[in-house]
Fold:
Amino acid sequence: MSQTVTDFEVHDIRFPTSEQLDGSDAMNPDPDYSAAYVVLSTVPVDGAHGTDIEGHGFCFTIGRGNEVMAAAIEALRPYVVGRPVPRTAADLAALHRELTHDSQLRWLGPEKGVMHMAAGAVVNAAWDLAAKQAGRPVWQFLAEMTPEELVSLVDFRYLTDALTPDEALAILRAAEPGRAERAERLRAEGYPAYTTSPGWLGYTDDKLVRLAKEAVVDGFTQIKLKVGGNLGDDVRRLALAREAVGPDIRIAVDANQRWDVADAVKWMTALAPYDPHWIEEPTSPDDILGHAAVRAGQPVKVATGEHVANRVVFKQLLQAGAVDFVQIDAARVAGVNENLAILLLAAKYGVPVCPHAGGVGLCELVQHLSMFDYVAVSGSWENRVIEYVDHLHEHFADPTVIESGRYAAPSSPGFSARMLPESIAAHRYPEGPVWQARRTTEEDDR
Ligand SMILES: [Mg+2]
Structure:
């Protein structure tokens, strides 16, 4: 009898990060970093045990609404429980298509927003489980698939005017000869990272300068600052950061969708003398022509993607020449399969992928996608960096390891997605002790 998925648990997990202003930016002044978290379970066979037989996945949110996300994941239960445990590219392609093509659930998007993110959490949990069955970290599991298997994972619907399956196959075949050598180099050197930890908008100037200098000492060659609150403050903060790190360290800036096009052009023209490396999310993530206008209207390169809903919007950003950097997010689109489509699109257009990370567990997940991209898709880490934020890693069983400003390649099987059981228990909302204690304090204060 084949092994099946026997259980499907969903948790609403929240961390009270708003108390420290960690993660604060111009659009999101008080986030409580949260995860709508799913665990797929199986019955052990052949001596497998414990966490080897669970698949973990999640969506990242910033607090309120995490219960909506959890309910959306719950709506996918019938697709998963009783299904044979996914092991192959064909299994993972079938699951991805079924979850994103359900005609009734698709109405809620289509292929965007809460339901699409929920599909991503379940797809990623299935990848975690399949990679564990194969005894490989996800980056390696992917990088050992044939070009034909990788192409079979992608839903090419709406993409073929920009990228056909044959073109994707050609990209993957061209990268095939160097795979082993690059995997070796990746294990030896790690993948380049940059840090956002110095730049949260709620931090004082002193804290910004101290953390910027520390980032350089720690080996980072790029940092990032949040902007978009007040222009005078941003000019002062960027000048301080530039003075703190010197001319050779890249400083990216991130407006988190704060501006209309004209504001973005005005603001970035004022910040340009301090040599920002990119302007991230200058305007609405849906506004392809707006990004193109920002790119044309001022001298700083444009990056976006963490809120881009799906592969179709990425396709248009690339077709319109609207971005210099593609910022995939592991938990926004429908999982590994859709991110593979986006990596292939970026490779076709020759645009570097610099993932969004941070939040809860996003660094842990997305490192696998960039590492796979380096080994088997673009074949390059030139001009590519993965975001790193030093928050909440202690809650994960296989946390990200940063050495001298680079992500160490994970070696444990799976997607590095498993949160520690004690962290889940403590942070469940609203019944976990972390939240119960806050409720009691609020009641006492009244
Ligand atoms: Mg950002």
Q: What stands out?
A: The CA atoms of residues 161 and 313 lie 13 Å apart.
